[in-house]
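During the reporting period the student researcher (J.K.) took over the structure-prediction task from the postdoctoral fellow and processed the backlog of single-chain submissions. One of the processed entries is reproduced below for the supervisory committee.
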Amino acid sequence: KGSGQRDFDRALDRRGLAEVTEMARRCLDLDLLPDLLIASAALRTVQTAEAFGRILGRAPSQRLIEPALYLAEAPTLLDRICEVPDTIPHVMVVGHNPGLGDLACRLASAARFSGFETAATCSMVFAAVSWLHIRHGQAADIRYDSPGRFYDLWR
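J.K. obtained the following structure tokens:
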């Protein structure tokens, strides 16, 4: 950070790469296999999406890199999720705090969720028949995982 490098261009360091690899393996173990990965265009989120895609066996065509998601706020992220075609049942969004953590808190309001730690994942299930109908407070079966801990927030 202190090198004058722009935040957007900052790469994952050795620890970040190790944490991303561990988290992707945990998703694989839990059979959390996204049909689509949508990532901010920042270098570290692209690296994260690529690592998850590789470990989870997802094709490059299943990853979308979107500049508008860089430091996006919760409403922007939810709008993007609502645009996902209904033929795609499982989506992963790779983004930044505070927006991604805020979105998780809004979607999973009953879970007393407090935001995202670095390299964390959060899985949620929605009863909506369309991504277009996802709303705040509708998430169920919420599982939050970070490199140091696992929480089943719904049970």
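The committee noted the following: Helices lie at 14-29, 43-55, 74-82, 99-107.
J.K. will present the remaining backlog at the next meeting.
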